[in-house]
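S1.2 Input.
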Amino acid sequence: MQLAGVISFWMKIICKTKKLLNHKKMEFGKLSNIESVDFSLPGDGAGTARALAGSPAAGGSPTFYTGCTGWSMKEWVGKVYPEKTKTSDFLRHYSRQFNTIELNTTHYRIPDWVTIQKWKTEAADDFRFCPKLPQTISHSNTLGISGGELPAFCESIQQLEEKLGCCFMQLPPYFGVDRIPVIERFIERFPKHIPLALELRHESWFGESPASEALFSLMQEHRISTVITDVAGRRDVLHMRLTTGTAMVRFVGNNLHPTDYRRVDDWVSRIGHWFEQGLQEVFFFTHEPDNLMAPELAFYVFEQASRIDGVQTRGPKLAGNEPEKGQMSLF
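S1.3 Output.
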């Protein structure tokens, strides 16, 4: 009984520790009080206009993709999904409401062939998956270039074919400018035919940093896009630096606070300006606490994006929110 008691005690400690770590990871840059936060967007990063002007023209109209961070939300039944929708049908309905997804499940495991084919078959024709690189790659000292995880991941997700949007790698907060040689080796190793965006979090990358500009120039040379995160408690990560004709924005809201909508207005205006400069596509992902209200925010993003002249977009038709006359029908 004593041994069982000791085991039980340590299991509780381990569970609590995991919960704290997960909470800390999910709470990156979030604040309990946002009243004093300046949510205004900074000016474009140095080199953004040059990168857009030099981006190869893709042909056709630019595209505004809007989505959330997952489809397995039972709370969305009756709002995002039809009443009585089975969990097995969530992706099919999600992909006909949104045209992209921040695919975080790939951060924890590499999907097998059967899973990839299921996703590809169920998703709408114009839907794009944006898989997050596995943490075994992004959180390793070598970024996975010395093991088998990177080729395994690439081999898996490239089977999405035309439904693959842009992969992204989220570097951990401790990965600073001293790791540039590691990032350079990773970029040179990463397959050129797979679109990739990079998210930076360590404070040393931001501000007037020669190291960050060196990295951005390297990314531009290798056609690696940037991830821009808009979150209340880390305004420095809002670097506004583009390196290709693709932009990826991770927008963290605050329970549909009025500032969420004003921030979206500013973002859509800025993205419209980027489209005029040569931007070809943007992947805009809405985050809200527990993601319960992320669809409402995505609906607002779509409403505003649909007003940009000459841009293709598609967004959700939520229960109780009928689209304005002239907007694209989903069904």
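S1.4 Remarks. Strands lie at 63-68, 100-103, 128-131, 167-170, 196-199, 225-230, 246-252, 281-287, 312-313.
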